[in-house]
Amino acid sequence: MNNENETPRTPAVYLQSFGAAGTVTGSKHLLQTPDLNILVDCGLFQGIKSLRERNWEKPPAALSTVDVMILTHAHLDHCGYIPLFVKNGYQGKIYMSPPTRDLTELILRDSAKLQEEDADKANRHGYSKHQPAEPLYTTTDVEHALQQFVTLEPGHTFRLNDEIGFRFSPAGHILGACSVEINCYGKIIVFSGDIGRYHSELLASPVHPVKADYVVMESTYGDRLHGEADPAEAFARAIRDTIFQRGNLLIPCFAVGRAQDVMHILYRLKNSKSIPQDIPVFLDSPMAASAGRSLLKYPDWVTLSSADAVRMFSGVTVNPDYHHTEKIIRQLGSKIVLAASGMLTGGRVLEYLKHYLGDKRNTILMIGYQAEGTRGRALLNQAPEIKIHGQYYAVKARILEIGGLSAHADQGELLTWIKGFIPAPEAVFLVHGEPSAQEALRIKVKDELKVPVTIMKEGIPQLLFPIDQNQLKAQSQWSEADRS
After folding, report:
1. Alpha-carbon Rg of the chain, whole angstroms?
2. Residues 6+ apart with CB under 8 A from 410
3. CA–CA separation, 197 vs 226, rounded Å?
C-alpha cells in the first residue's frame, strides 16, 4: 500500500499517522480495518509556524473515511482539532472517559475563545497578513462537536461490532487520561496515549493493560531522565531567590494538569514555611480553576483528599477576566503568577512576558515539555529576544527549568511501561516524539525487548496483520461477559 488514499485490497489491518509522527503535536492515528476505520485522537498542530499552518490545510482524504473516534485525553494537541473535524463533516461518535469529557469541553471552549480574541486583535491592530483574520473554529463549532461526545468508564469493554471492541485504562498524565486497548479481529492493539509519571503529585500511577500484540507508544521523553529530586525543593529555591531580588515569578503552565500540580506544591511549601506564607499567588486562568474543581468531582482518579484539594485553592487568587491581567501586572511587590499556555504559544501568559522579560529581577520558571519552534523552547535555548504579537522583547529575566514536574514519563518509565506486557508485543510503533527522542527509545526497546520497533512517518501506512476470515471467531479474545 503505497498511496495514502489507496484502500487495502486484501483483508488486513493498517496503522496510519496524520500527526504526532516525528513531532510531539497534532496527534491523529488511524486504525484501518475492513469494517471500521477508527481515529485515535484528533489534535491541533502546535509549535513552529510550518506545523501551525497545517491546521488550516484540507485534511488528507483517508481521514474522510473515519467511522469512530476515540480520545485518550484532553490536551489540545490530542483534542484541539475535533471542532474543525466535525465542521468538515465527521458525524460519528467520539468516545472518552468522563473526566476527559469535562476537561475537553473546557479546553475546546477556551481554544475557540482565544482564537476569536486573537483574530479580533489582529484585525484591530493590523498585524495579520489575512484580511480579515479569522479563527480556525468558533465557539459555535465547539457546541456542535460536544453533541457527539460519549463517555465510557475505564475497564469496561465497549463493542463496536462483532469483531472490534475497546476499553480504557488510566494512564496518569492528566485527570482522565487513558490508554486504549482495541481488540480487533482477534489481535489486541494498545494505543498508549500520553503516559504519566509513576510518582505524580496528584494522580495515581498508570494502570497497565494486561496484554498487547501491537503497541502504538508515545516517546516524548524517549531520550531523557527527569531525575529523582523532589521538584518542590527547586521551586522553593527559585521563589526565595526571586523574592530576595524583589522580582516576580512567572510560571507558564498548562491549565489542565500542570497548574493543579504547581498549586499543590505551593500549598505544601507554604504549609512547611519553606516560602513566605504571605507571598501572593495568582492563577490567571479561569480554565485552570475549573479544571482544579474536577479534582473534587472525580476523587477516584486522584490521590489527593477532597479536603486538601479545597485547601490548596485557599491561598490562590483566581483572575476571572483577562481585563484584570493588567492590574495584577501593576501590583507592587513580589508575586507568583501561574498563567497558560505552558509552551508560551498564546494566552494570557504573553501579557506577563511582555512586562516581565525585560527585568533581570524577574524569573520565568519553565516546568513542562517545550516543543520545537515554541517561545518556551526559544527561552530555554537562551534566545536574546522573543517575538510577541509582532514586536520583539529583550530577554533579561532569569530563565529556569524544573524537569521533575513533567506530566510525561521519562525514558526509564517508558521502558517500565512497555516491559509490563507479558509476553512482549509482536511489534512497537513509536509516535509523539521528536526524532532524537524516538531514535533513542527505539534502540532501547529493540535491544531490551528483542521486538521490531518502527518510528511512524506521517501518512505512510504500516501493515499490522492480515486477516484470516476463517479464523475470526476462533481468535476472538474477549470473554463471554464482554460479549454480552
Report:
1. 22
2. 221, 224, 225, 226
3. 10
392 and 411: one domain?
no
> What pLDDT does residue 127 have?
63
280, part of any domain: yes
- Distance, in Å, from the CA atom of 31 to the CA atom of 115, rounded to the nearest integer, reads 31
Backbone angles phi, psi at 302, to 5 degrees: -125, 160
Q: Is the pTM above the cut of 0.85? A: yes
Contact 374, 45 (CB under 8 A): no
Q: Does one domain contain both 157 and 220?
A: yes
pLDDT < 70: residue spans in the chain: 1-9, 125-130, 228, 469-484
Number of domains in the chain: 2
Backbone angles phi, psi at 32, to 5 degrees: -100, 125
C-alpha cell at 293: 474543581
Q: Lay out the sheet containing 336-339: strands in order across.
A: 317-318, 281-284, 336-339, 249-252, 363-366, 398-401
Instruction: Give residue-wise pLDDT tens across range 31-82.
Output: 999 999 999 999 999 888 889 899 999 999 999 999 999 999 999 999 999 9
Residue 351 lies in a domain: yes
